[in-house]
């Protein structure tokens, strides 16, 4: 009799626990949904795209095929079953370059969750794309001398090069070039062992570069070797313009009129979010917004 009573008590306690759990989940799920909606609204998605029209839940992302840095074809459709952030950018766009660190952090944090970032560059050539991803830009000594104030030069004798010799004109904070110790106005002597005496030679060396780079520079008469590590966290593709404009053919087919712009494509290939201009992808707001797609 006592044993039966204990079993009844345990059954009642279990039933009450189950009811409380169900009630808790009923409260929790709407709260989570509200948090996701608030986070996504906080990222300020756009409801209309010039070419694609209204951003409805059933709008499918147009497939495309572009080349990666190794010349391999990469299609959007090959990532079906994953969440894809298609980030349209260009090496000549300073806002795009400033967005890259947060995109890399986002990719690093979500890679195991089945998220892929495709960084689609509206560029004609891989050389400027590689410079942008490493975080530096160059100019010749002659170009710098023509506009010394633009480059902060007070005394032309400070330049480590002359004529068409290549100097570092800009360093992007937080990128591989800055982290590796490359400095503005360093003269690039060689890249991966190839001598550099002109912009054309540098571009040719960059086109053939794979992964990390070893750059020899002349700084104040001293030759130094700078090793730049390529994180390769993003899948970078090139989308060359097919006319005299500066936007790639795929970018234009997606209604892009200025970069950066991004689309979030779900596991079924449908566009879930469309963002005009840069976003902080490394923040809690982006993580919360994406979590619903990751969990779905």
Topology:
Elements: H1 2-42, E1 48-49, E2 53-54, E3 65-68, E4 73-75, E5 83-89, H2 94-110, E6 115-121, H3 126-134, E7 136-140, H4 141-146, E8 166-171, H5 176-180, E9 187-191, E10 194-195, H6 199-208, E11 213-219, E12 222-228, E13 235-238, H7 249-253, E14 261-265, E15 271-276, H8 284-295
Helix pairs in contact: 1-8, 3-6
Your description of this structure?
- The structure is a single chain.
- The protein is 35% helix and 24% strand.
- The model has no long low-confidence stretch (mean pLDDT 88).
- The chain has a seven-stranded mixed β-sheet, covered by helices on one side.
- The chain folds into two domains: 43-123 and 239-295, Glutaredoxin, CATH 3.40.30.10; 127-228, PDZ domain (Pdz3 Domain), CATH 2.30.42.
- The longest helix has 41 residues, at 2-42.
- The protein has eight helices and 15 strands.
- The protein has helices at residues 2-42, 94-110, 126-134, 141-146, 176-180, 199-208, 249-253, 284-295; strands spanning 48-49, 53-54, 65-68, 73-75, 83-89, 115-121, 136-140, 166-171, 187-191, 194-195, 213-219, 222-228, 235-238, 261-265, 271-276.
């Amino acid at each position: 009799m006592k044993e039966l009573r204990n079993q009844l008590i345990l059954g009642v306690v279990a039933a009450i626990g189950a009811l409380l759990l169900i009630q808790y989940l009923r409260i929790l799920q709407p709260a989570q949904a509200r948090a996701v909606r608030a986070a996504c609204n906080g990222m300020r998605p756009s409801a209309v795209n010039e070419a694609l029209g209204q951003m409805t839940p059933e709008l499918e992302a147009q497939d495309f095929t572009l080349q990666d840095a190794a010349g391999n074809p990469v299609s959007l459709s090959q990532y079906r079953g994953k969440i894809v952030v298609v980030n349209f950018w260009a090496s000549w766009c300073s806002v795009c370059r400033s967005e890259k660190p947060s995109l890399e952090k986002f990719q690093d944090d979500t890679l195991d969750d089945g998220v892929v970032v495709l960084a689609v560059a509206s560029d004609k050539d891989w050389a400027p794309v590689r410079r942008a991803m490493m975080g530096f830009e160059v100019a010749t000594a002659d170009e710098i001398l023509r506009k010394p104030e633009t480059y902060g030069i007070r005394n032309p004798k400070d330049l480590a090069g002359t004529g068409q010799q290549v100097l570092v004109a800009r360093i992007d904070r937080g990128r591989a070039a800055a982290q590796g110790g490359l400095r503005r106005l360093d003269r690039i002597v060689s890249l991966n062992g190839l001598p550099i005496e002109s912009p054309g030679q540098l571009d040719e060396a960059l086109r053939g570069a794979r992964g990390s780079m070893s750059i020899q520079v002349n700084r104040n008469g001293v030759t130094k070797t700078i090793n730049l590590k390529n994180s390769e966290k993003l899948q970078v593709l090139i989308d060359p313009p097919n006319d005299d404009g500066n936007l790639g053919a795929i970018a234009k087919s997606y209604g892009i009129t200025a970069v950066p712009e991004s689309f979030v494509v779900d596991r079924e290939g449908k566009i879930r979010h469309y963002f005009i201009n840069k976003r902080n992808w490394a923040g809690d707001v982006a993580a919360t917004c994406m979590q619903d797609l990751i969990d779905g």
